[in-house]
Amino acid sequence: MGKIGEIKYIINNRTINIRNGEVKDAEKLINLIKKVGKETDFLLKNPDEFNPTIEEEKNFIQNQADSEVDLLVVAETDGKVIGICGLNGNVNKRIRHSAEFGLAIEQEFCGMGIGKKLMKAGIEWAKENGISRITLKVDTNNYRAISLYLKLGFEIEGTLRNDKMLSDGSYIDGYTMALLL
Ligand SMILES: CC(C)(COP(=O)(O)OP(=O)(O)OC[C@H]1O[C@@H](n2cnc3c(N)ncnc32)[C@H](O)[C@@H]1OP(=O)(O)O)[C@@H](O)C(=O)NCCC(=O)NCCS
């Protein structure tokens, strides 16, 4: 449940390990989200708004692992967690077939194909677990992410006007995208 088989890739002479997130990753995952949050405005929270304790993060990871409808996958290299991909599903029957993607890669490792590998692992898991609709939300100026999602077959379903407000007060539109499996 919420499990994928471990996959290893060689990318730019580095071994990238794609596997389920584990409780032992809690501190590394907090640091990764904080780092990516400082590197880009594309995540949902400002860096100072993401402050779970290690215990809270461990509980989150354990809950994802125990869940039949959620998935947490990480990319690791040299013992360092450099990417995370989550699929959050629903238990209610009418929307049990639907899950939402979230994705973040450390800037130094972006553009190397790791996001695509993480998403492919998530899509395979979704297919095997009765999910037939994957959704996500993306800022309309997040060109790399949009390009990746289109390549994987996601389609834009709508525009969310003024979806996000940045710390300088400017608004960013978002797209809702979906992939039907
Ligand atoms: C968006 C993100 C997850 C993509 O992951 P990634 O590992 O960088 O993406 P990949 O290297 O797998 O690239 C996949 C595709 O995107 C495209 N791409 C890569 N770099 C790009 C760039 N600078 N501009 C436009 N498209 C780009 C390429 O077409 C690539 O496909 P290809 O390798 O088959 O040609 C990652 O960049 C990231 O975490 N960014 C910051 C946080 C974020 O934006 N999260 C998503 C919120 S919705």
Protein architecture, described:
The protein has 181 residues and is α+β, with helices and mostly antiparallel strands. It has a domain at 7-132: Aminopeptidase (3-Layer(aba) Sandwich), CATH 3.40.630. Helices cover 28% and strands 35% of the residues. The protein contains 4 helices and 8 strands, in the order ββααβββαβαββ. The protein has helices at residues 26-39, 54-66, 114-128, 143-151, and strands spanning 7-11, 14-20, 71-77, 80-88, 98-105, 133-139, 155-165, 171-180. The protein starts with 6 loop residues before the first strand and ends with a strand. The mean pLDDT is 96. It binds coenzyme A. The site of coenzyme A has 21 residues, from β5, α3 and α4. The site of coenzyme A (COA) has 21 residues, from β5, α3 and α4.
CATH class of the domain at 7-132, named Alpha Beta
User: How far is it from the N-terminal to the C-terminal residue, by CA?
Assistant: 19 Å
Q: Proportion of β residues? A: 35-45%
* Gross CATH architecture of the domain at 7-132: 3-Layer(aba) Sandwich
Report the total helices: 4
Shape: globular
